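Students often ask why we bother predicting the structure of a whole assembly rather than each chain alone. The short answer is interfaces. A chain on its own may look different once its partners are present, and contacts between molecules only exist in the joint model. In this exercise we take two input lines together and write out one structure for the complete complex. Read the inputs first and try to guess which parts will touch.
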Amino acid sequence: MSNTNKDKQAGHDPSVDAGDDGILWIGMDLGTSRTAIASSNGLRANTYSLVGYPKDVVSRKLLGDGPLFGADVIKHRLSLDVYRPLEGGVIKGSNDEGDAKSAEANMRAARDLVKHCIALARPEKDQLIYAVIGTPAQASVKNRKAIFDAAREEVDSAMVASEPFTVAYGLDQLTDTLVIDIGAGTADLCRMHGTMPNEEDQITITAAGDSIDRTLAKLIRKNHPEVQFSDNMLTQAKEKFADVSANAAKAVVKWPVNGKPTDIDISKEMKDACLSIVPPIVESLAKLIATFDPEFQAVLRGNVLLGGGGSQIKGLGDAIAAYMDAHLGGGHVTTVEEPVYAGANGALKIAHDMPNEFWEQLS
Amino acid sequence: MSRKLTFNVIHLLRGAARQESLERLKREGHRSVSVLRASDIETLLATAVDETLHALGLELQADSIKGLNEEARLRFMQLVKERDDLAATLESLRSQEVQLTTAQGSLRNELQRAESELSTEQVAGSSTMEQELSQLRAQLTEHLTGLLTGHEVAPALIAELLALVETDLENYRVLVAARVRREQNARITQLQRRIEKLRRKLEESDLLLARARAAGAEGLPFLADIGRPLQPGDPGYQHKRELLEEIFKLNVELQRIIAAPADSGTPAAAGTAAPPVGSTDPQAGSIRTNT
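Now the answer. The structure tokens for the assembled complex follow.
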């Protein structure tokens, strides 16, 4: 690929990009629950990280041959072989766990998901696509390879960057900041101190969206054994009622009891389940703070950035701050303005700021 | 500050701005022009509003700011939807362009064929019939003359008989010619209508094609300006540049490890412990990169 015109402009850093219609920069947050994409043409989109393939001839006739994605999968799930190709923020089977057939099927679903998301950015014909994809802070090489493989056919050049770092970069919070990125599978915590965070600066824990779901299901089964519900109903209830603030509205769901729709108050279970991730998160924060320069620990405590889909739980920032007050002697938590897109926006910013020569070398 | 306000101001500024082609600017001797991006305007407006509010001692309630942000977000989502619709239209126009180009080729061929049929029809028509009648007249005259001469019929009677035949033939010729002309005129009218219709179709497809091409060339309008990329002089340029370089190097290293053959003995390729990329801590089990 040749250097673009902008590189030749006199008086400019040749490696500095000044916009090029022939290139579409994409930032992607490939998440366990949702995948978000932000692109340099101004389009943003997000979808549930679900891929469904018609089960048989009848469903193929009804839904067509191609895979379905996101909300369509939930809608037609009974007619589909459904895949949630990511687990813990990485492609299922990429760590050689499970059987080869299942790993291959998940890889295919991940590829289709990436393809679908890139299509949502509506690239022009012949446009070069440069993408930065967010990965969990501690994803292994195999995990990253799987992500590269999934993206390879759809983009001209790809880079991976840790999700909390992309959030911090997007918000220009690169110094003395603690980033908490709560996804579905994992919560990534990252200490930003002006340089590229290294391994000691990052912690990945599983206290995240899925663990809240599990706890919630367990609590509801314990307190309301007569109620019937599915994972999907649980997720929908969580998305609607997740609130840990003092004046949280009542969480009343209409779920079947012996086949009859019945109003069930799950407010307490919801709050307890959502709060269950606070202690492990703060404990991990404590580790990151305690191993930092003592002179700057207070600054770090006072600058905690909360992002990811999990940060949409109302009042979670305050709950973390309160727990920090009680156990770490204080803390200030700011919830990012756009939890769903914070990672993708940051990844897009990295992609856009990255000199073209770097992209060309990687393509 | 309200993003809606920013949006409106930018919209107004865009409306008030005039467009100059690069060629014209070049002709006028301009080598460079000052450019003010939407993001710059947004920053300027934000600063101005903040300073004004500060100077006036006004503080907006958090709820008001939240409300304004929500309104801007809804507006943005609406714009995204409109843009999606526009993108779908654009795509359909593009596919129409391909279909129209093919259809135009057939239309032109059909038009050419119809025009050639018309000119043949206009030239030919009654001349064939005239020729046939003239042949019939000659044959009849020859046969009748031969027949009557053998039977010693008076020449005056022969002449009278031939004149009668001639008259009937002429009447028949006029009758047939009129009918042929009517048919021919009907055919010509039909052909002319067809040609007219084909020309109209061609014009319509030309128009649609031009519109599809213009839409394709114009592409989709930008909804959001992601601003310019990092440039020297930006706050924290050097720092960010170093971070970007590091991300790049880590990705190069990652790709090198990924590309290494499985039997090369590199821990990453073998899927076992490997020295972490960008880290000095040789943690076993999985490689962790900094990015």
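Check your guess against this: Residues 100-120 of chain A form the longest helix (21 residues).
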